Amino acid sequence: MDSLPFRYALEIFIIFLPLIYHAVYGVYIAFTAKNNAGQYSYMRNWLFVLQRVTGIITLIFVSWHVWETRIAAQMGAEVNFDMMANILSSPAMLGFYIVGVLSTIFHFSNGLWSFAVTWGITVTPRSQRISTYVTLIIFVALSYVGLKAIFAFV
């Protein structure tokens, strides 16, 4: 990435600003949402709650990961295989990364389902059921890839 033209502009306007907006708005939604999974224990109510919980976990995880890699690189650390292998050599950090990656993938997959419903892409019960299976497959596939990537460092 060091050789990309306009690297800093790309990082700021394509990655960091949208992520910060999503995080700030997401924290607001997470703490103002009316969770009713205790009263109505339907699967979608629980997924609504998990979306908010995994959003907070993902925010903590991504912030920590950016601190450990991107900010450390700015302070002179070399970001490479050895750096991640060293980080993941701690059982606590390995567990943190596993939970963080799985939370991020769940938040993304379930967010795709919510996006499709909110924007009127899947309006019928049948299309929503199909969308549920598609996003479940996305979750399982990306979780496999994410966990394999983590364990490649161990």
Tell me about this structure:
It is a single chain. With 154 residues, the protein is mostly helical. It contains five helices and no strands. The protein has helices spanning 7-32, 43-74, 81-87, 91-118, 125-152. The radius of gyration is 18 Å and the shape is globular.
Give the oligomer, counting copies of the same chain as homo and different chains as hetero. Answer: single chain
Helix proportion of residues, in percent?
Answer: over 70%
Number of helices: 5
Unreliable stretches: none
What do the pLDDT scores average to?
92
C-alpha termini separation = 24 Å
Order of helices and strands: HHHHH
Share of residues in strands: under 5%
Largest sheet: none
Summarize the structure.
This protein has 154 residues and is mainly α.
What's the topology here?
Layout: H1 7-32, H2 43-74, H3 81-87, H4 91-118, H5 125-152
Keywords summarizing the entry:
154 residues, mainly alpha
